[in-house]
Amino acid sequence: MVRRMGYRTYPGFPEEYIWVDHGDGTGEVIMLLSSSDMEKIREFQSSTALFPGERFIFLLSKVDQEILSYCKRYKITVVQEEEVAKILGKALIQNYLDRPKKTVGERESNENKDYIMVYLEEGQNPKYIKPTIEGQDVIKSIGLRPELIFVPYHFFSYSLKVMEGEVVGERQGTIMVNAVNGKVSTSISGFELLDSWPTSHREVEMKWEPLPSMERAKRWLSESIETEVMEKKETGSFIIFTRKSMKPLEDTIKVTFINTCFYPVYSSSAVAMDGFTGEIGSISDFL
After folding, report:
1. Residues 243-258: what's their mean pLDDT?
2. CA pair distance 287, 15, nearest whole angstrom
3. Going by CATH, does the domain composed of 8-122 fall within 3.40.50?
4. Is a pLDDT exceeding 70 seen at residue 123?
5. Which residue from 193, 217, 286, 287 has the least number of CB within 10 angstroms?
6. 168 strand-pairing partners
7. Sequence-separated (6 or more) residues with CB below 8 Å from residue 209
8. How many CA atoms lie within 13 A of 152 on its CB side?
């Protein structure tokens, strides 16, 4: 029903909450409660305290003042029973009106099948970025028996305006966020995506979901672009160096989620090789 209302949901932790991404860098997390369970409300507060978006409790029972006071203190919006009924009822009606009309002779099971296919498509694993380095090159670089690990990364496109001295300029590009440790870096390009990887490997479980990763990406852009640029000008007799500050305009930073992919990393003990660029570093750079 949330998706029918025009929003995108994604798997988050804890899994029993509804995680919603609005697609513009904002989002919300919702907990449905059938009773006024204060212990579950406290769990919701503690487990979502760092969530950057709005937090809602849809309560399907009478609410007391203790719950209202607690939620107000922690900036959690309580949606009470009557309002929940209105919201969900409206979604159900819209769902009925928007469903495709059946042609004569079409079976009811076709509608159900379409719905299941969409659900399974959303639940598929991320695609695999094909390593560009394999075999003997890996063995020579990091050891005799490297393990191939696929690390989940979220990919984003971005655009923003920057002040270059007294002139406003524009920047755009792509970045990627490690969904295990939250590290942000400039995105690779020109890679090939595969639906599966045929040989032995290990897949690392995602810890950073797309929405908090998007917020991380925004902070990284804000911090990494603010710098001083050295300019060189040549005249007939002199070479003049000048410093020009470059500062991002915070309100113009726009980050858009592209997809999530498994990134190849070869590991042997504490040493790791980037399976796409060939760079060697520590396994802690990736995990």
Report:
1. 78
2. 22
3. yes
4. no
5. 193
6. 163
7. 10, 11, 12, 13, 19, 179
8. 18
**Two tokens, residue 155:** 């990919």
Q: Enter the pTM of the model.
A: 0.54
CA distance 16 to 33: 11
Tokens found for residue 71: 């939620």
Are the beta carbons of 187 and 174 closer than 8 angstroms?
Answer: yes
How far is 100 from 118, CA to CA, in rounded Å? 14
- Out of 41-50, 137-146, 249-258, which region has the weakest mean confidence (pLDDT)? 137-146
CB 31 within 8 Å of CB 44:
yes
Q: Which H or E element spans position 124? A: none
Helix axes 38-47, 65-73, angle to 10 degrees: 10
Neighbouring C-beta atoms of residue 209, cutoff 10 Å: 19
Position 40 scores a pLDDT of 92
The number of C-alpha atoms within 13 Å of 117 and in the hemisphere containing its C-beta is 6
Residue 190 has pLDDT above 60, yes or no: yes
Instruction: Kindly list the domain boundaries of the chain, sorted by start residue.
Output: 8-122, 127-285
pLDDT for 115 equals: 30
